[in-house]
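Quick illustration, no need to memorize.
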Amino acid sequence: MSGLLWILVVGFIAGIIARILSPGPNNPSGFLLTTVIGIAGAFLATFIGQAVGWYGPNQGAGFITAIVGALIVLFIWNRLVVKRVISDPGA
């Protein structure tokens, strides 16, 4: 249970930092969407880290890898907005 809580807290902070670091005009706006993208990035980083063997079964992603995961999720978000697969909530 503590691994899940760690992913949520780190994901929240990673989402905010990734949004600051991510270039581009079509960043998702809003507190809730930024939080969700950060948490999705933390889950992505945890999944990849456990698959590669960096983390054990009950470990969550580290802070830096969660930020990298959130940046990857933001990159995918930006590509989907550019291709008009999803609408830009900031427009």
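The chain has one domain: 2-82.
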